[in-house]
Amino acid sequence: MFPGQDNTNMNNKETLWAIPKLTPNSSNWVTIKTQFLFTRAGHNLEGHFDASDPTLPAPTYSTPNEERWTAADREKNLAYLPLARKWKPDKHIACAQLAQVMSDSLLIWIQHTSTVADMWKNIVAEFNHKGQMVQMDLHCRMM
Q: Most-buried pick from 36, 62, 90, 122 (CB within 10 A)?
């Protein structure tokens, strides 16, 4: 939360999402990045952003016909389903976190990226580079 913001009507889930949107000139990039890193850690989603939690490969079954599965196939499926049911919504939450803080033009740029980790990597590279360019410009003006 920010100084002066009233959070009496917000529940804990909403306050975790309270990150301002990136300004068009990206002047608040450092703040957004820092708050975003803390928020994603609070939601236990780091693996989607650093690619340490990749897409779960579906198990290989003896036959694609579920009616003919062996006992081993059913065990594989029972082990896989809870993991897949957790991973997929977590991916969507991670995407929603990115969408919430990014400008429309940036969303258009990253929307077809295949993984959240690639989206985040592209965003960080773009804005860290812009920050370096601003620093170089300031350095040149001060000389």
A: 36
